[in-house]
Amino acid sequence: MLRFVVLVAFGVASVLAIDKECFQLATPLAARCCKTPPPKPLQDESLKECFEKFKKSPETAAENKCELEQCIAKKIGFLADDGTIDKKAFEARLVEKFKEHPKLVANMINNCVNADVKEYGPESTCELLKVDHCLKVQYGMSCPDLDDKGSCSEIKALAEKCAAE
After folding, report:
1. Looking at the 3D structure of the chain, how many domains does it have?
2. Which of 16, 74, 99, 125 is the most buried (most CB within 10 A)?
3. Residue 23 is assigned to a structural domain of this protein
4. Per-residue b/e over 31-61, b at no fewer than 16 CB within 10 Å?
């Protein structure tokens, strides 16, 4: 029985290690390795209020980031007042932003919007940041044209490995 428990624990740890390795696809380096850059963030005047309010906040960076993301999501219209994500509105936003990449949109919706994203951050991290991290991982795995030179060759190999899982 003890051997079974150890084997199961080792198997779970191995799977988690593979998943966490894929998190590297959400880093700025991985984003730079994609020759097809993601769409630019909204430059809407209504969002300026969020950035001004939270850049002066005394909270820790993680708390500040969650509050900033929530403010932006409310202004864009996919976060309800109770803090829940309006998944239909969020899906529509992804479809609009990534309309040239329907496979990426499907991956983002299936793996991030309509899935449990608790593994994409510590328990204390807000759901929006976990979804954002998940979206970045999906983007890294689905980049249509990854650079294969220098350190980007490692990112390309990792993206191919993670996409195959």
Report:
1. 1
2. 125
3. no
4. bebbeeeeeeeeeeeebeebeeebeeeeeee
The answer to the question of residue 122 being in a domain is yes
Write the CB contacts of 77 (distance below 8 Å, at least 6 apart in sequence).
86, 89
- Assess if residue 29 is contained within a domain: no
Residue 22 one-letter amino acid: C
Report angle CA 51, 52, 55 to the nearest 5 degrees: 75
Candidates 164, 163, 162, 140; CA nearest to 33 is 140
**How many helices (H) and strands (E) are present in the chain, helices listed first?**
8, 0
Angle between helices 2-22 and 127-142 (to 10 degrees): 70
Cα–Cα distance for residue pair 127/118, rounded to 1 Å: 8
Is residue 28 a part of any domain in this protein? no
The pLDDT tens digits for 24-69 are 888 888 888 888 766 665 566 777 888 777 775 555 455 678 888 8
CATH number reported for the structural domain that contains residue 113 in this entry: 1.10.238
